[in-house]
Amino acid sequence: MKNKKILISGASIAGPTLAYWLSHYGFDVIVTEKARELRLGGQNIDVKGPAREIAQMMGIEEKIRAANTTEIGTRFVDTANKIVAEFPKGESIGLTQELEILRGDLVKILYECSKEKVEYRFGDQITSVSQTDIAVNVSFASGKEESFDILISAEGIGSKTMELVFGSQPDFKYLGLYTAYLTIPKEPSDSKWARWCNALSGIIYLMRPDNHGETRASVTFLATEDEYKGLSMEEQKDALIQRIKGTGWESDRITEGIKRSKDFYFERVSQVKASSWSRGRVAITGDAAWCATPIAGKGTDLAMAGAYILAGELSRADTIEQAFRAYEDKMRPYVEKSQQLPPGIPWVVYPRTKFGIFILNRLVAAVGSKPVKWLVGKLSSGKKVPGKEIVLPDYK
């Protein structure tokens, strides 16, 4: 297919990646984003596997490397801030990968490399969608109405466009957790190491350095699904402050950060299970289609792989239906594999009691000990290099 006018809704990671590749193949691409400017907040993400392959093809790998968060590894600490174990960058149990970047910094890089051929419209969003045999008719909050050949939602979890087109939201698999993210001022206790701390009542605190002179904090904890549903921003802040009160470590510092935060995010941790990713001339991609949650560690991989494959299939298919079918056939096995969590995850790493935390910390200390690391290294040396998680087709 050529000379098609395509609207993408959402300018996070999947949207600009998709826009880049569609424009590369000669499509007329418009991206609409409800925020008035790029949303540059967010926490650390890693670019590995298929995401790194795609970044290389886009010529942005070195830009990602240059925007590294400065993080050198992960330290597990107890509530007295004593180091339990440490895992330098690249070790499998740690959080830090070779290409570690803030979400907002990656969004900016993707926008910069696509904006020359793509029209971005900020401060507007889709309010209604109707389809005919030859077009998708879209109305916007600004009052504008326009027709497109194809509409793709890359809006993220809870996509409003998906609801307009499919008539409902997909199924959500709740993982028993709520999570909060925020940026806080850097203090002397912070370093280039990420710090992970298990606290009482099933709470995990995580502090990570960034390359902007601040610290990215997160709080994740066990909770029932509707425990904090429907709260306003201020109510969310108050509820989280009460939840972490008296749990030790740097909870007082995080409490002050919550009160002053301008980028506070608080939500349930749920996977998206959509039975179909397209209807007629409309498709969904990214978290809107398959959110695996940060627990899986595959968000960037899935977002960029899905965008690349969807654009590629649209470039070589004879019909929209063929393209959407091929996109889903190639991506769904990878999505389903990525959403599979090891037995006991996440609950096993969220002990509620002092004894449970003690046992978990002892296990982490054992895994992080020199003898165990040496043994793992010996056992893994000479082993066959694992194959790619997903083979990216060459659409040239």
Automatic annotation (TrEMBL):
Q: Which InterPro entries match?
A: FAD-bd, FAD/NAD-bd_sf, FAD_aromatic-hydroxylase
Q: Which SUPFAM superfamilies match?
A: FAD/NAD(P)-binding domain (SSF51905)
PANTHER family, A to Z: MONOOXYGENASE (PTHR46865:SF2), OXIDOREDUCTASE-RELATED (PTHR46865)
Cross-referenced Gene3D superfamilies: D-Amino Acid Oxidase, subunit A, domain 2 (3.30.9.10), FAD/NAD(P)-binding domain (3.50.50.60)
Its name, as the record gives it, is 2-polyprenyl-6-methoxyphenol hydroxylase-like FAD-dependent oxidoreductase
Where the record annotates domain FAD-binding, the positions are 5-335
Q: Looking at the record's lineage, which domain of life comes first?
A: Bacteria
Q: Name one Pfam family in it.
A: FAD_binding_3
Which GO MF terms does the UniProt record name? FAD binding
Q: Which organism is it from?
A: Pedobacter metabolipauper
